[in-house]
Each structure stands twice: as C-alpha cells, then as structure tokens.
Design a protein that fits this description.
The protein is about 30% helix and about 20% strand. By secondary structure, it is of the alpha/beta class. The chain has two domains: about 260 residues, Spore Coat Polysaccharide Biosynthesis Protein SpsA, Chain A (Alpha-Beta Complex); about 35 residues, no CATH class. A ten-stranded mixed beta sheet has the order 1-6-5-2-7-12-9-13-11-10.
C-alpha cells in the first residue's frame, strides 16, 4: 500500500510562508468525539514510522536500515515490537520507505534458514525465530514516498488504522515497559496520551516540551506543547519521549496540516490543534529511554541490554570493568 505524494497543486509554495501543505486525497470527515468509560475502544494497533534515512549513522546505514541495527543480537525495531506485543498490541503498521524491504523480510518466514536450522538440529535458534514471528495478518506495510516528516508518516497509516484509537512508537526510542504504562494511563483517562520524561532544564531546547496542568500521580493533563523552545522559555522540563496514544481525529487534522519546522508535516503541530477539542495527558515514564538514533544512545542501549541478559550480564560486566580500569 503506497502513501501518495502531496498534491503539487496544494503543497507549500516555498516562495510564500503563508502557503499551506494539504495532503492529497484526504477529505476531513465529520467531527467525532473520543469515547470514554466502559465503551472506550481499546488500543489494538500501533504505527511504527520506519522510513527515516538514518543519516547520523552513515556509512553504516547506506545499505542497512537504521531500524535493523542490532542492540546485542536483536534489531532495534524488534525490541520495539517486543515492547508493544508484551503490552497487548495486536497489529503492527510499518510506514516504510525505499530500501526498507529488509524490515518486511525480518518479520516474515525465512524458509531456507528454517530448513537449514532444522537439518542441523539447532532447535534453540529455530525456536527463537518462531517465537519472534508475528502471526498471519498481524503486520501491515505502507510507503511514505517522500520525507515529509513524522506527521505525514502517521497520516500514511490512516486507511489501515481506520476509525479507532491507536499507538505510535518511534523505533529509534527503546523504552522497556513504556507501552504497558501508556495503556494503563489510557485506561484511566481515555483521550490522547503522550509518554514524557524529565531532562535538565538546560537541555529543553533540544526537544518537544509539554506544559503541565492538573496532576494525577504518574499522569497529568497537558495544557500546551512546544517544539524545541528557545533556551530559557520552556514551560516545563518534560520532554515528549517517542510513545503516543492518539484518537483517529488526528488524521483529519493531518490532512490539512501546514508544513512546520524543517519544511515537514509535524505531528506536534497537529496534536496542538487537536488539543482544542480533546484532552491530552502526559504519562511520566518510569524507566530510562535510550535514543538509538544517536551514537551515544545506541552504545548505551547495547551496554544496558547486554548487562540485563542472564547469559551475558556477568561476563560482560567483568570485561567492561576491566576495560574501564585500564582505560
């Protein structure tokens, strides 16, 4: 399933800051109110935008998608799917781009490999592949044909998501247990939920930041959002950390969303518009997120995940301590 380009007749005129970008073929549907209480729809589907070029990891990502780079012995995107699956997500929607077919292959049966493992009696390896394989119909793939931002990538999944609330998981961000915490927050509040984490105040200009309203323990009402505010102007030090639960009305807004920062369709801009009619809640993630899109974050994820592995942790820790002692 391909995601169409923006209609040239309605795209942003780069010579006019007042022009807007309207996504081709999308007609806003009548306004709908998100469900709450016993009739609230549960979250079954997750959108994973995996079309990014991974330029921060060149030359490694010239031929290998950044999402397929491994943390210990599993691709980053597999870790994210594992997190969502453990939380109860049933359907994974990958928004891909050119040269990303290997992601689709990873979540498919490899007949020759399975046959070879079986013949060589490598039962453990074969079982691990079988365990990781999604069931038939649990994955969908659609194309983002142009690099027009996260908002555009989410919009490309609209026909597969349909008229139900859904999750968005950024595959660069490894946050063990985050989706489970998000779903608990959604069950409590309904509406739209964003995972947030605290950072030092002198780093807020690097992130999307939310404003804090009424607090409910580990959650709070979001009263505003701003993308990368100038130093000293952030309304809080809570950053948007790569996990979202959104109502389907976001698609109507994205269909007419103007281009924002970087000349891209920004998801944050669309969420700000949706806040005019729906509630947003922040979920204070209890854990540590590793941004594998940065080199330091990627290396730290490998260290953390290796140390947590029963068969690797003790030996790796010993080697690591010996290395640091001699450094």
């Amino acid at each position: 399933m391909a995601c169409p380009h923006l209609n040239p007749a309605s795209t942003l005129n780069l010579d006019s800051a007042a022009s807007s970008a309207v996504l081709d073929g999308a007609k806003p549907s009548p306004s709908r109110s998100p469900q709450h209480g016993p009739s609230m729809k549960r979250i079954r589907k997750a959108v994973l935008p995996v079309a990014g070029l991974g330029t921060r990891f060149l030359p490694a990502t010239k031929a290998v998608p950044k999402e397929m780079m491994t943390v210990v012995d599993r691709p980053v995107v597999q870790h994210v799917v594992d997190e969502a699956k453990a939380a109860g997500i049933e359907h994974f929607i990958f928004v891909t781009g050119r040269n990303k077919a290997v992601i689709e292959d990873h979540f498919d049966i490899a007949y020759e490999l399975n046959e070879t493992l079986e013949k060589r009696s490598k039962t453990k390896e074969l079982e691990s592949l079988t365990q990781d394989l999604p069931q038939a119909g649990q994955t969908s793939f659609t194309r983002q044909q142009a690099p027009l931002g996260l908002g555009h990538a989410v919009w490309c999944a609209r026909e597969i998501v349909g008229d139900e609330p859904f999750a968005v998981l950024l595959p660069d961000m490894l946050s063990r247990g985050s989706m489970e915490q998000m779903l608990a927050a959604y069950d409590r509040h309904g509406g739209n939920v964003i995972a947030v984490e605290e950072v030092p105040h002198d780093q807020t200009h690097q992130y999307g930041i939310v404003s804090v309203g009424e607090e409910f323990g580990q959650t709070f009402e979001i009263t505003g959002m701003v993308e990368k505010p100038p130093k000293g102007t952030a309304p809080s030090n809570y950053i948007i950390s790569g996990r979202y639960i959104l109502q389907p009305e976001i698609f109507d807004i994205l269909s007419s969303q103007e281009k924002g920062a970087g000349g891209e369709i920004q998801l944050t801009d669309a969420m700000i518009r949706l806040m005019g009619s729906q509630k947003f809640y922040g979920m204070k993630y209890q854990g540590r997120t590793y941004d594998t899109g940065s080199k330091i974050g990627f290396l730290m994820a490998n260290v953390a995940y290796a140390l947590d592995r029963e068969e690797l942790g003790a030996g790796f820790r010993q080697e690591l301590e010996a290395f640091l002692k001699g450094a």
